[in-house]
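dumping the sequnces here before i forget
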Amino acid sequence: MSLTGVPLLVLAAGALLGAVVGTGYGWRRTGRERFLIRPAGVLLTETLVLLVAGLAVNAAEGFYPSWAALAPHHDQATAGPTVPGRLDPLLRQQAGADDGAAVTITWQPDGWRQWHLAAPPVVVVPAGYLRHPGWRYPAMVIEDQAGQPADEHAVLVYLRTAGAQDAGTLATRLPEALAGDLRVTAHSWALVTPAAQAALDRAVLRADPARYRAVALLAAGRRPARPEMPMGTDASVIHAAPGTATWAALRWADQRIPAPLAAPAVLNPYQKTPGRRPGAAPTGGGHGTGQPRR
Amino acid sequence: MAPDSRAVELLAVAAATVAAVLFALTWDAAPGRRRIPVRVAAFALCLVTAAAAAGIWVNRQVETYTSWPALFGTGGSTGSYAPDDNAGGAGQGRIVALTVHGKASGLVLPMYVYLPAAYAAEPAARFPVVEALHGYPGSPVSWLHRLAVARHLNGEIGAGRMAPTVVLFPYQTPNPLLDTECTDLAGGVRAETFLTVDVPAAAAAHFRIRTDRGAWGLIGYSAGGFCATNLLLRHPTRYAAAASLSGYADPGIAVGDGSEHTTNNDAWRLEHLPIPAAALYLACARTDRSAFRGTRTLARLARPPLSVTTAYTSGGGHNDQTWQAMEAPAFDWLSGWLDRATT
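..and the predicted 3d for all of it:
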């Protein structure tokens, strides 16, 4: 019998009616038992009045749609699954004994030769990447800058371009390849490019609005006007002397990314006790972050 | 002994029981014509005590009146939650309280604040912020008591699933029975202004927090879920992300200017206004019909650059247990979209 169904409500109302009639009948008793019957009848009637009212409200509002919903829920968070990056073993090998330090590798994902690059990308994982195998990191993609410093909170991808770029590489192909090879998040990255590339950056941001939250445009010469970027993007033109530009851009972008985090807790199915799943309560379908569902 | 305490609830049940017994025992006690007023008085006492017991039980569920002055209208909506300013052991955040004197809204309301353990450990850091909004009827005390939010936040931050974050728990109305849905009621309470202008200003004045949009998020359950979504869509330059637990697509009240059908209706906004670049998390129980319908509507209407994540649980309903189950994943998700703490 459903908690919100009419049958239960009718049953409770019937019980209430019975309690009223029974109390009235018992009220006439004159023996000592009336001292028990009368208060018991009144209390039972009151309780049933409240029960009927409660059931009616619950049926209308759906606070507790099922009997199972009344049971105390196991509210301990359950860690989400962690998928290691394909390059994690290589990074560990590269790091050797010092697995707490930043590691730099040359990254050659499938298809990188079609990305119009002068050389394979260079990836720098932050210090602690290997010591936190459950964490996922935001990424920063840096184009055509001198030096390859590490960042404390992000995976860095250094690109040296050769020829005209297309938005698809930065918006789709590179992020997809990186997501398979390293533990990176799916959104809120930062992009560091020469200021002259603002138009391409705009196209990248429009192609995947969630991917890059911050864009640093590096100007070597006269400070250009701040380019117009899609709403929601934190953009800045950074004017710095050659040699310090990359540092300046990383320092700016590093403050505009989320912290590296372990996989979020999963939304558990409704269950009474840990590890015990009622048959009628399969896990809810959580969709990964990223593009809106339509 | 606050009106939402277990002791008061037990006292009320005891009073109702005693009243029932008295009613039964005094039925024949008075002689002659005095019987009638005695019986009427005893019956009225029965009704009042039973109604009081039921009301106190309901109040305990929703934590609407958390102090006697609030109940009797003599002290605003000040809560009874006693923050322990000296708490905050290893890895434990603490709850503090302050009063927000809203210059923009004209509202003066209390607010509770969760400070993560890192707040004391890193005195130079500035932290991201989440505004947590409660349901109606209700109060921020529901977050602290019934949803045990500090325990969940400590656990998620400790597990590395959430970054250290300052969480604000503001009141959303000066009158516990006035449902504002976090809007500026036409000619009335300016809850939206309070929450989006006064609360951030007060938080910035009192705490080491980040003030830029990328580090600010919203979360809410039930009516607070609508609030979180609505404030995100209406103020995308203030907030970067919001999480709605069992929220709705419309306020369900009359705002006074008809905007419940337009600019304060999230489904309408998504259909008719430019979509903001922000992130939205919508969670509810599939069995929570109204919230499920609202969630599905919003998810269907959302389009880039708004990023929407949906999460459903097949059991539960529209109740505390369900929101407790949703809390940790929602806070984790939010943290993944907010800029980190800076030094």
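Helices of chain A lie at 6-27, 34-61, 88-95, 167-181, 198-207, 245-254.
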